[in-house]
């Protein structure tokens, strides 16, 4: 019997395993193989790979700096807001660190102490209460395995299987699920991509946002879309609009997707169920305004590790109490959402030039951009 079984070794799961791995008997299960080279077995996590200042601060608090190998060029110092609803754009200074997400995940996993048992390439299928804890069932190479642990930690990201199963098992004890979006992201060869992160607002495409991110000889184009049959067509519409604006989308080299949670109320954050604790995006820890998730993944792992310092008994209540500040942060970001997502308010802010950079990159017509009149395909 393990003390703690963690499902998922993304930023939340790997950080928790690193922090508690020397004090507890820990098992980490991930469907990906994060010890091998990038591009090895299975797809990597679909992500923009921008480390925002909030995540930089948590990394600093944890005494970590990013290795050179994880960084990719260009480093971006500006976000270009492209408001297609109001035909406006504006550049704003931001300090992101541009990274290779696949290498970032491997680096975080490389910090996990060897005493932690890792099962890579294993997909968790279910869990059930057992004597003294929880039994977790997973498959690998066509075989099914079961391991038992005193505590199960769900760190399996947006659209968490553990959260969905817990919802089915304890419908009255789990809060509502956060709104779920499907993120589609494509990579295009582009030797000199525009050196800024663009955040695109267009209610024809999504009520969340779309983006372009330069990535070492490539341009990423992505969008967080309401799931459903029209999602792919709305993504195509985004690409057509970008092309009309002068974006050169070279050869497409990759298309990827992921679900993404967007919590709008504190009740949608779920820190625990009987025998199960949720960290990272599985809990709903992600910014509802920007989809920044690394800082929340790290912070939730830090709080759970601190709660576990008092033992497994009672750790859920301690974790819930410690993470109240994070809930307030999400509530605050949710309250601020209309500034970005209300068409009229956003238009007023962008038009006012408040806190905008005076420089124009020249790629788009300065100030006003044309509304591309294209119907969804
Ligand atoms: C398109 C996109 C772009 C984003 N860009 C950014 C960004 O630039 N900056 C930022 O801060 N945040 C970004 N985010 C959010 C960020 O990626 C997440 O919030 C963050 O990765 C959450 O970390 P996590 O450890 O909770 O979950 P994840 O990183 O999702 O890790 C979950 C892990 O669990 C594993 N897993 C899942 N299900 C199972 C299963 N059944 N069995 C076994 N293993 C399983 C997965 O393989 C994965 O390794 C983006 C999200 C998306 C979708």
Automatic annotation (TrEMBL):
InterPro entries: FAD/NAD-bd_sf, Geranylgeranyl_reductase
Coiled coil, from the record: none
The protein, known as: FAD-binding domain-containing protein
UniProt organism field: marine sediment metagenome
